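One chain is below:
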Amino acid sequence: MANDAEKELKKLIKAKTNKKSDQICIVVKIRDAVDIVDLQIKEEAEGIFKVRVHSTNEKYPKWYTYGYFIDVKNLRLNYSDIKNRKQIQDILSNPNFVVHKPTKQLLDRFEKDFGGVIPDGMGKLFWRTERFKKKKDPFKVKMKAM
């Protein structure tokens, strides 16, 4: 049985990916939401929302980032013009074509830290990162050792 926070997360996802919504977003999931009891939504920049969840599961951290909602307009797309998933995949894999600077920086961070973005599920608005743990920077590891 889903608790209030899980229901709220599902409502949020449904509202942001609804075709009739005035702000249609792409959902980029970093990690699954398991045993969540609380939810925080923060607007990082215009059209970019960061969703953090509080989990009671012992295998997960207490608070972690569930994912990001990125407005389709930040990717210079119109929802009615999107024919297939490949159009979005091309933009997500080549952030140099994105004009909106915060969105470009976020996509670069996905590529560097999580190994890029791949499709998740059947919908064209649902994506996930390849990894949920950040890659370690070899230079930072060496600096700590010295």
Observations:
- The mean pLDDT is 84.
